[in-house]
Amino acid sequence: MEKIIIEGGVPLKGEVSISGAKNAALPLLFATLLAPGVHRLCNVPALRDIDTAASLLQIMGAGVERDGDCFVINSDRVESLEAPYDLVRTMRASVLVLGPILARLGHARVSLPGGCAIGARPIDLHLKGLEAMGATISLDHGYVEARADRLRGARIYSDLPTVGGTENLMMAATLAQGTTWLENAACEPEILELANALIGMGAQIEGAGTDCIRIEGVEQLRPMDYRVMPDRIEAGTFMIAAAMTKGDVCIRGAVAECNEALISKLREAGVSIEQKGDLLRVRGPETIKSVNIRTRTYPGFPTDMQAQFMALMCLADGTSVISERVFENRFMHVCELQRLGARINIDGHSSTVTGVTQLLGAPVMATDLRASASLILAGLAADKTTEISRIYHLDRGYERIEEKLSALGARIKRVPA
Ligand code: UD1
């Protein structure tokens, strides 16, 4: 076990490069199961969730080799059809093997993910969609078992837009017989990224990035050669780090066009943001203004930035209301931010944050991935020392975060707990 220690109060300055997007890389890795052959996926971040995905691919029979930030995956031999509980419970995105394995082998067994820190997060919509495509689904000792000799195209309306559900069904539909329409599909940039990679593999997909995606099934796909987009959530986290420390940071690979909701809210809070090509220069204001946010599916304000934005609002001049509309239990960071002196009240799906002039360093505990990021941000701005334990959550989604922050002047180190 390790912990992170931060001596707060240093304005961050300099340039930082954003790594490949975890949430884009994971479905892309699983999409390699769709086609035999040797796939190459580059700009893959070094993260614990990526290691879990690589282990899962190996369990299914694929060969996985790393060459710097590239993965070379040989999926000629994909024989196992089971995603075991031990891996699925550590990473929910493991359920994304269901669509590709079912489409390729006609049979898949995937452990049900169970609960997670930020809510119940069922996969009923993934299963309903596969059933509509002709799969027989049963539950067996904690596993979902899906069978279909060949999936059939179908018109599938999702009760709510789900990112993983849209990805799973889009992958499955690429090899189905006939045409599939995914209606009320999620529109996240990572879905467009997956569609682009699948199109490169020979899939016929139209409308990805909108709420209606049309997929014309093909007989077979070829291997992918793809470079993962930068991580918009990591970029957003660095924007807030600059803002909270009254810093001046240039972010390379900030994917500004995918971060419009966040950027407009940061500007409302008084943060200066200028785009120069691939670089985004972010400068923190003397006084942070209070701003209300409500998380939504894309292009709304991302739930994965809610905890970090709340950390920023803890230092705002005034009161802001932060409303979480995507997950039912995503305020785990509140108690820990309170330990640093934040004034926050939770009322159901909303939290009211009354800004304080100074956060005060203290020992805190990370509870989930983005909650960990909010504690790092608060620690960077807080007076004296913040010690964050249980940082394995952080390593699921942020590549070399303490190195990147140190290079911007932060006094941050990782030590054995
Ligand atoms: C993905 C992201 C995660 C992000 C989330 C929302 C990955 C690997 N993870 O997660 O970082 O926070 O999108 O932007 O890309 N739901 C159902 N039934 C289903 C599926 C989902 O009710 O079958 C509900 C969930 O409980 C949740 C909402 O739909 O309330 C959105 O979840 P979803 O978009 O599926 O999130 P993930 O794909 O799990």
Task: Give structural notes.
By secondary structure, the chain is of the alpha/beta class. Helix content is 31%, strand content 26%. The strands form six sheets. Strands 22-23-1-24 form a four-stranded mixed beta sheet, covered by helices on one side. Strands 2-15-17-16 form a four-stranded mixed beta sheet. It binds uridine-diphosphate-N-acetylglucosamine. Uridine-diphosphate-N-acetylglucosamine binds at residues 23, 26, 92-93, 119, 121-126, 160, 162-165, 186, 190, 303-304, 326-327.
What can be said about this structure in brief?
With 417 residues, the chain is α/β, with parallel strands linked by helices. It is built from 14 helices and 24 strands. The strands form 6 sheets. The chain has a 4-stranded mixed beta sheet with strand order 22-23-1-24, with helices on one face. A 4-stranded mixed beta sheet has the order 2-15-17-16. The protein has a 4-stranded mixed beta sheet with strand order 4-5-3-14, covered by helices on one side.
